[in-house]
Please model this.
Amino acid sequence: MTGKAFQDTGISPAVHFVLATVFVGIALLAAPGFAGAARPNFVVIQTDDQNSRTAKATLRKYLGGRVPIMPNTVGEIFRGGTEFPNYYVSSPVCAPSRASLLTGQYPKNNGLVANFGEEGGWSGWRNLPANETNLPVALQEAGYRTSHFGKFLNGYWQTENNQVETTVPPGWNNWFTTSFDSQTLHYGYQVNDNGLGRTRFGNPLYTATSGLDPKRCSAESLLRQSIANGCHYQADVMSRAAVREIRRNSDQPFYLQIDYEGPHGDVRPPMGPQPATRHVGSTAWTPPQQPPNFNEEDMSDKSPEVQEAAPNRMGFVGFQRFKYYYLRYLASLRAIDDGVGAIIETLRQTGRLENTYIFFLSDNGVFLGEHRFYQGKFLPYDGATRVAMAVRGPGVTPGGRSAELASNVDVAPTILQLAGANASWQIDGRSLRPFWRDTSLRTRRATGIAYSRSTVDPEVGRAGVSAVAPSLNYRGFRVGPYKYFRFDLSGQEELYDLRRDPWELRNRINSPEYIQVRQYMRAFLPAVDNCTGNSCRAPLPPWPEP
Model:
């Protein structure tokens, strides 16, 4: 029986879970790791702060016409595989989201709830059980070679000595990871190279066109690495490292995770997203996207603390500042896409592509004008919590599109199932494999969304624009067409019917026709917010219609 069939019956949630467990077991036995075939490889490509609208965005050329910003990503993964347009992150904050991806657990269950401090970032991770109970650890124990390139967690740095962190977390065979004390640098960054600190890749005092040789820093150089010496743009360096790893002459199955720091902004002038030199100015003729909730006209339905953070609409000067930021943001995605193309081409050349699952996703979204917020994340609106996600690989429906609610807690259990590996810890998510095999399947499982720490993140206020999303505590979830959340301090509630209002323009919490929906969402918030393991996968009862 499928999830779609569950929804059409009166079977209790407890029986649902028993039946689901049986079918997961059957699927696991049919997975490549158990079927005697060569075990699959995995590549997880994660961007930083990528708004879901930008993966398929286009740029306007000087003489007219449009071309995709990310043609390799869209053509090879989104069209070559199955897209999950309703993919949410458990918390729209870097470190908690990344920890959920690696553990398959919500932040409240793995313990990492913030970017910094005792429960956040690297300082929190290394003192939590999650440091030794996570996806790469399980895959390594199952015989996989595991590699990481790029950003790991915020604050991955030896604060006591003020130097590069040289500790390699458990579970990784190959570790080439940026080490920083606060925020992103695209030039002049430092790296932990398998336990050795390597400092200053490139000039930290770069300018927008810092004289880099375009022949060395080109998309072609990612594959022809002999000419790439002297190219220190971070996305390119990490892409070349991933290509080298894939070219290793080995029959051992591998898990490769590359965490690009773009399109996240840089913290040194010129501040904001930093494109590769070859792409500077390439988006100059592209007007910013302006969806219906861009520079939202009426915010009176939003909670007071949200209205207070964005009291005024963007004027002409504010729009020009935003446009400058936005165009650099789009341009910075182009080097990432070059890397995606190089990784896929290398998999193809080495004969590994057909037996490799490739996941593309982001740690969280970021506001690009939605609800008057021109930068930042943190809040539960879709601009920050819903990100573009697609997967291609053996048995994945090409050109598929599954509307099933998915979450970053689902990635680890999906990969573990496909690899035939076992988790020694309790997982909150579930495998997405049934939903790319049959894209019409639907269930009533909810996805939790929460932010648990109100300490001000260092990113707040760095954008150089007039309204940055505030850091507020809340609890919420989405199920079916509805999203509901409640702010901890004020108790203010918001309810959206995303089927009728996909841009979250009308808060329905006080609408008479949504009284039953409001009661339903209020009743099940504690169950979703406090779930662990099996209870996080159990379907909710049928929701009411307005």
